[in-house]
Design a protein that fits this description.
2-enoyl-CoA Hydratase, Chain A, domain 1, Lyase 2-enoyl-coa Hydratase, Chain  A, domain 2, 2 domains, 6-stranded mixed beta sheet, 4-stranded mixed beta sheet, binds acetoacetyl-coenzyme A, lipid metabolism
Amino acid sequence: MAFETLNVDIQDHVCTIKLNRPEALNALNSVLVRELCEALEEADASDKVRCIILTGSEKAFAAGADIKEMSELTYVEVFASNLFASANDRIAAIRKPIIAAVAGYALGGGCELAMLCDFIIAADNAKFGQPEINLGVTAGIGGTQRLTRFVGKSKSMDMNLTGRFMTAEEAERSGLVSRVVPAKKLMEEATGAAQKIAEKSLLTAMAVKEAVNRSYELPLNEGLLFERRVFHSMFATEDQKEGMAAFLEKREAQFRDK
Ligand code: CAA
């Protein structure tokens, strides 16, 4: 499918979705949000795709929700349309792993979009922030909720109340991102990670994603029970037999997603 605000490329089972609204630093307007949900759902359904990378430009992953588009909206309009609820739910429902490869600004809805992915690899020029307070609003797609779970209350309050930006180094130290690499190496690093994931059993990768995400929703005992049940269920798959046999036979596993 061709998109107005995205470039989509599939190679070696990795689908790379690049946000492409350079004139607005990839601000998330309604066209981009709709197209992004469609592209992610298409990748999730495609047999050709085993892992997804979401990225932006060297200057901006995304500078937030589109302020021009939002500025004149009324409470009744945003409440009635449930602004951003459907995008949050549709992106959170993607079952294949999604890596956010972030360079430049990831602000407001941009930081929230990166946090909706499964993990974040940052370029050393990345800047994260929840500056919505400067616009007279709070964050609206997880900036007060997911960010707090990533970095803890004190830093989340700091980010959301002052609107200051966090460097990639601070974001890694705080647990928001998993790795920081030189900006020029960002896509190489993200693609390498995606290809590693694409070599695994997709069934297992989806089960891992589901189990880790449950840890955000459940108390420890319930989470451990969920994990144990998922772990037990993997023994019903051919990929478990193949993975363990391959280890014992000292060869590469040939997973078939069965
Ligand atoms: N919405 C719409 N347009 C945006 C935008 C946004 N969030 N961010 C940047 N742009 C546009 C600018 O208006 C500008 O367009 P024009 O050339 O037509 O004027 C263009 O992108 C380039 O931006 P700047 O000239 O401002 O670039 P800069 O390098 O000087 O500054 C920046 C970069 C610090 C990221 C600055 O653009 C900025 O502060 N952007 C807004 C960040 C922000 O507040 N994000 C939160 C949005 S609200 C939100 O996301 C709510 C939510 O939780 C859902």
